[in-house]
Design a protein that fits this description.
Helix content is 46%, strand content 12%. By secondary structure, it is of the alpha/beta class. Helix 2 packs antiparallel against helix 10 and helix 7 packs across helix 9. 21% of the residues are buried. This is Sigma-54 factor interaction domain-containing protein.
């Protein structure tokens, strides 16, 4: 039995068995196969009609976003993706990487929101042995990893103002200095950044450098929340129904009008 399950078996009968139970099991297998075929065909239709690099949208707004991604992916030097939490900023960043000439190079992600302030520089630039207590060996930073590829600064607005100056130096001179070192390292990277903050307000407040903002923001892509583009909700509903029907091997017929109305009226906060 274990060999059978390990080879992909999902159900079995022990002898002696009743014919009606066998027929019931066969029917279940046929239904599951038909459901998978139906899900595949629906996903294929959705791909052609609404999908773009893993994103779903049919609103004029999203179609313009898809066109912009397509146009700038071939030559971008600094792209800032803005929008509320949950709008799909990381998906846009991954699409730009996938479509870019650097698609075969690394996309190194720096989750700025999760790094404690005192660790930013060591995470980005690395350090040498003896740089601080506990630094018992050299450690490469994220810029070392991203050399030749793309560094993705997720939630750039969280980077401390003191580290921003050193980040600007990387953008201007393609150089950085690991903590504890007296020597600069040269790096060639493209920058992708996201933020859910209003960086223009942060500049006014003195918490974000204006020169860094302009360096990172050669092109800005703003992703609006779903409440601003309700036309994208129906295809998303169809996609997730298909996805979970397939995943759970259950034939979910659809969503009631009342449920769809509630989804369309929901504000979808970030």
């Amino acid at each position: 039995v274990m060999d059978f399950i390990n080879q992909g078996g999902t159900d079995y009968l022990t002898k002696p068995f009743k014919i009606n139970i066998l027929l019931l099991m066969i029917q279940k297998i046929i239904e599951k196969k038909d459901l998978r075929k139906e899900s595949f065909l629906l996903e294929k239709r959705l791909d052609k009609k609404y999908f773009y690099q893993g994103m779903i949208g049919k609103s004029p707004y999203m179609l313009d976003i898809f066109a912009l991604i397509e146009n700038i992916s071939k030559y971008f030097t600094g792209v800032l993706i803005t929008g509320e939490t949950g709008t799909g900023k990381e998906m846009v960043a991954r699409a730009l990487h996938k479509l870019s000439p650097l698609k075969d190079k690394k996309l190194v992600i720096c989750d700025c929101a999760s790094i404690p302030e005192h660790l930013f520089e060591s995470e980005l630039f690395g350090y040498i042995k003896g740089a601080f207590t506990g630094a018992d060996k050299d450690k490469n930073g994220l810029f070392d990893e991203a050399h030749g590829g793309i560094i993705f600064l997720d939630e750039i607005g969280e980077i401390p103002i003191t580290t921003q100056a050193k980040l600007l130096r990387v953008l201007e001179y393609h150089q950085f200095r690991p903590l504890g070192s007296s020597k600069n390292k040269t790096v060639e990277v493209k920058f992708l950044s996201t933020t859910n903050r209003n960086l223009r307000e942060a500049i006014k407040n003195g918490t974000f450098r204006e020169d860094l903002f302009h360096r990172l923001n050669k092109v800005e892509i703003h992703i609006a929340p779903l409440r601003k583009r309700p036309e994208d909700i129906p295809p998303l509903i169809r996609y997730f129904l298909t996805h979970y029907s397939h995943k759970l091997s259950k034939k979910i017929k659809g969503v009631s009008r009342q449920a769809q109305k509630l989804l369309l009226q929901y504000q979808w906060p970030g």
